[in-house]
Amino acid sequence: MRVIASIAAMQRLALKRREEGQAIAFVPTMGFLHEGHLSLMARARKACSARGLLVVSVYVNPTQFGPKEDFAKYPRAPARDAALCRKAGVDILFTPSDGEMYAADFSMRVAEERLSKSMEGASRPTHFQGVAVVVAKLFNIVLPDAAVFGAKDFQQAAIIRRMVRDLNFPIEIIVAPIFREADGLAMSSRNKYLSAEERLQAPILFVALQTAKNAVAKKPLPRAQLRQKIERLIASQPAACVDYVEFFDPQTLEPAAKVGPGAQMALAVRIGKTRLIDNAEL
Amino acid sequence: MRVIASIAAMQRLALKRREEGQAIAFVPTMGFLHEGHLSLMARARKACSARGLLVVSVYVNPTQFGPKEDFAKYPRAPARDAALCRKAGVDILFTPSDGEMYAADFSMRVAEERLSKSMEGASRPTHFQGVAVVVAKLFNIVLPDAAVFGAKDFQQAAIIRRMVRDLNFPIEIIVAPIFREADGLAMSSRNKYLSAEERLQAPILFVALQTAKNAVAKKPLPRAQLRQKIERLIASQPAACVDYVEFFDPQTLEPAAKVGPGAQMALAVRIGKTRLIDNAEL
């Protein structure tokens, strides 16, 4: 495995490999890797085959954090990340620096303006702009044929797909399933923030998804009614505080009036000070 | 020469040619081609060599016209454009349709937010957003190694360079010199709008550039003083009405306090109903 920090070196290598006809598969991450990330890498390897180039980036992108969010304390473990990537068969670990990614007079905006208004976009107003700009940059630097994103960030994946469609990036977007702990908690680097007590309450997000799924299996329910039911359930955990619970069309992200099987549910819940998200098709 | 209208076909071909190691040079245009465009094509051919692929796009991009601008009546001559391209040795003429370029639910914004505020950006508030988004799309579809833009649109070229730098497009941007009529009028598809009487007055833009150049050759002048002098000169032509006259740093586009040799001058002038632009290094 090669570790590359320079944007120019990474792009040069990618251009050369493409010229040689080698497929490139890419997994962009913010590091502090867990089994969820490893499952994305396995999916990416499948996409580019054993002879392709598997590139993983580790970059905690400042522009996707709000001014009061956890950029500074976001967990970082570069040595462990490198060891995990090596073990996972990654060919290139790309670790750019903030200074190279964002010049002092950086002045480009890349933004999705429909799908990004609700849910995460409503709670974190500049988040998806930061995501769009960094992913556009990484796509142009790594020049992948395929890129793999995790389904935990459902809205992010929808926005990336839209960006690829509307800006014509020649890249296949693959969304890999959520990887869960035994008790249903979705893997996330932020799970590290949870105290032992909070960790016991955190599976309430998964329980909420299962409960909603069962509730609408027989007959569709009005959105407000289902939301109330789910919010009450979450409130049963003393450390939990709902940010949003939403039910929507998985393509357009438009809220569903009646929620039935096939609708998508997503939620964000604070467990103590830690904000967790999860989602599922009902 | 092949004419391709389908985005997917153009991108497939570009990917294949890159895989084969063939260089691609690209000239994006809005058609109604003139000798200025032909000089860009010659420059692009030089960039990709005889064995490279020279791609010219003709696309009158609706998103870069304001609601009261001349999108509907912008001159179009597809058959003549194709003949000129063939004669110029173009390999691929790419002519996408509005429907393919912009889906009904298109929702991406690409915008430069510093260099685009003054001059053309001030007079045409949504213009450069339209330019940025269409150029980003065309870059991802045509996948060129080099792209050639005309120096007449000085601010546009600066914004494209910034977009390429900030979003890391692996593309060399070449800015080719302004091509002028014998009397100094910069070539433009919009010159076609001019009446015979207006055509005689239109070289006042070039005269203004020359006059400013001579005025500051001996010693720098305060910006306001130089602007007043130039605006008076332009007012000597009865059909002429100044939109802006600006003096600025060619890198940052920041207005110069004192204008001397090396400063850039740009101006927009209406001749009757036709808005013309021009610029020069002083």
Specify Rg of chain A, calculated over alpha carbons. Answer: 19 Å
The count of strands of chain A amounts to: 12
User: What's the order of the H and E elements of chain A?
Assistant: EHEHEHEHEHHEHEHHEHEEEE
CATH class designation of the largest domain in chain A: Alpha Beta
Task: Specify the helix fraction band of chain A.
Answer: 25-40%
Q: Name the biggest interface.
A: A-B, 35 and 35 residues
Tell me about this structure:
Chain A has 10 helices and 12 strands. With 282 residues, the first copy, chain A, is α/β, with parallel strands linked by helices. Chain A folds into 2 domains: 2-176, Rossmann fold; 189-281, Pantoate--beta-alanine Ligase, Chain: A,domain 2 (2-Layer Sandwich), CATH 3.30.1300. Chain A is globular, with a radius of gyration of 19 Å. The termini of chain A are far apart. The interface between A and B is medium-sized, with 35 and 35 residues. Strand 5 of chain A pairs antiparallel with strand 5 (108-112) of chain B.
Task: Map the helices and strands.
Two copies of one chain form a homodimer.
Chain A (H helix, E strand, L loop, with lengths): L1 E3 L2 H13 L4 E6 L5 H14 L4 E6 L19 H10 L4 E3 L3 H4 L6 E5 L7 H4 L3 H16 L3 E5 L3 H14 L4 E5 L19 H6 L2 H15 L2 E2 H13 L4 E9 L9 E2 L4 E8 L2 E8 L1
